[in-house]
Amino acid sequence: MDLVLKLFNGGAGSLASYLAAHVLLCLLPAFFIAGAMTALIPKASITHWLGRHAPVYVSYPAAALAGSLIAVCSCTIVPLFAGVYRKGAGIGPAITFLFFAPAGNIMALAYTGNILGAEFAIARLILCLIFGIGIGLLMATLFWKDDLTHDAQADALFAEKASVSGPALGVLLSLVALLIAGTLKLWPLTADLISFKVPLFWPQAWQDTLFDWVPYDASKGEEGVSFQGSVLIALLLMIAATAKRGLDNITEGANNWTWVALGLTASTLLIASMRLTPEPGTLAFTFTGRVFGVALTMLSVGYFARKLPAEDWQGWLWEAWRFVKQIFVVLVVGVFIVGMVRQVIQPEWIESLAGSNTVIANAIAVGFGVFMYFPTLVEVPVARMFLDLGMHPGPLLAYLMADPELSLQSMLMVAAVIGRKKTAAYVGLVASFSIVAGLLFGAWVDGTGWLTLGAGMAASLAITAAIYQLIRYQRKQTAS
Amino acid sequence: MLNIKILGSGCANCKKLEAVARQATQNLNIQAEFEKITDMGKMMTYDILATPALVINEKVVSSGKIPTVADIQGWISTAQ
Fold first, then answer.
1. Cβ separation A322–B43 shorter than 8 A
2. Where in this chain does the record put each Thioredoxin-like fold domain (chain B) (predicted)?
3. Do A204 and A241 fall into the same domain?
4. Angle value at C-alpha A66, between A459 and A384, nearest 5 degrees
5. Within this chain, do residues A228 and A291 fall inside the same structural domain, yes or no?
6. Would an 8 Å CB–CB cutoff place B66 in contact with chain A?
7. Is B14 annotated as catalytic?
8. Is residue A335 one of the residues assigned to a domain?
9. Residues A393, A322: one domain?
10. What is the ipTM of this complex?
């Protein structure tokens, strides 16, 4: 019974820290951004550059751009991947797109930066970009024979040109500004500007009760539920209830519940950016620079959103709500389970397996990512747990790169498009490059000099280029 | 009879599209044969970039978004 209570508290404590203000300021805007990208960026605006006649230096970067801006969920990624492969520039850019989308989309990057720190997010972005293009190129050279058989009628798919409308761009940029305003830990956002106290007797008592219910251990990374945290949780529950009524049928038009849900969301963001501190007999409200930043950027979003045609903003809200339904519940459950598992795993196990930046440690981390399936975004809290338990950042990045790419479900779908042999080659390449990426990042964290790092990076790129040339040479040999 | 195909891999969007399409046929009191296509290979034979997609009598009328009931009713009427 004691163990059950300990597990439950571990789960609850972990969940509480994930529903804390700073995470909400990242996740809530991220869902809206993902929805906006899916609904407001016409696929044709980028896939146009992925046609058969696109030169290599256009189609590969375009594929990476498509991966980060167009696709967040596998139901968009896989059909687009199939389309680019069968009817576009072929397997290379298609693979780059497939690789970059789960790892390089803005939701994943924002959440990684929020929970693990900016270095991880930046490393994830840069290494995924470089290695994504590398893997695409290698796959293209390995399987060049199949690329020769293309449909002639395929060009129609890529002939369409489109651009992002003015208001849509305004909405997107304002949302990104909102995300930055909400999460950047920089002055003047962190400065305390206005502070006033409201005499209320119950906040202090309520906070004491909360700390009683969910005892927290700062050394284990648990934050406990503060008064402000409980207010935010209550708001989230209200948003869930009203959003269900207001957004489930938004494609038919908005109703009153829609505006209530949106209003509650805006209030949640504002309350998350201020500080509520209970003191004996009063409640202190502190407005930081962040409150004004968040308020201004939200007004900007509203300003541009009003200029969007009904079909566009309704589509945007529908997609955002769809992502929330798909991801948030699973994320909450996942975080709770991670919190429970955390109580059981001993740091010594993790440290002995992956505590230092060795090839074996990175390989183990990648293997774990391949064989353990976690839904989108859940790999981030799992990574946090490992980091707290003593995993070295190098293998951790290797895990972060391999896990979203290689879920069994998406691999099955990919195999349906390109066949099992190519899928196996892809899995092998992703695993190898993730290990290399982990080694490089781990070396950087360990303080290896830039010269050594640069040499290591150059070495791996040189090997990649050499393999690429070797395959091309062999191809020429067989052709003649 | 009217043939309506829903193309999608099974996520919330395609379910919604099917519900909306069924509502449209109900409103117009029309009999239609509904087919759900989740196989990637079959989906690729239709020129679409994104799911969910709606195909009425082998013609792709919408892809990548959820149309309104009124929109679908319009397409059905034209297809008759």
1. no
2. 3-76
3. yes
4. 65
5. yes
6. yes
7. yes
8. no
9. no
10. 0.79
Give the pair of three-digit tokens for residue A212: 């009683």
Q: Is the pLDDT of residue A129 over 80?
A: yes
User: Which tokens in the block code for residue A299?
Assistant: 């007004």
For chain B, the structural domain boundaries read 2-79
Q: Are residues A470 and A377 in the same domain?
A: yes
Best residue of B40, B51, B69 to probe chain A, by most A CBs closer than 10 Å:
B40
Question: SS3 letters for B1-63?
Answer: CEEEEEECCCCHHHHHHHHHHHHHHHHHCCCEEEEEECCHHHHHCCCCCCCCEEEECCEEEEE
For the stretch A199-236, pLDDT in tens is: 888 888 888 887 777 666 655 555 667 888 888 888 98
**What's chain A's average pLDDT?**
82
pTM: 0.83
Residue in A38, A76, A308, A417 to test binding to B, most B beta-carbons within 10 Å: A76
pLDDT score recorded for residue A295: 93
The CATH class that applies to domain B2-79 reads: alpha beta
Convert the pLDDT of each residue in A243-267 to its tens digit.
Answer: 988 888 888 888 889 999 999 999 9
Q: What is the pLDDT of residue A153?
A: 47
Domain that holds residue A88: 41-165+345-479
The alpha carbon of A473 is separated from its chain's Cα centroid by a whole number of angstroms, namely 39
A222 and A182 within one domain: yes
Determine whether B37 is an active site residue.
no
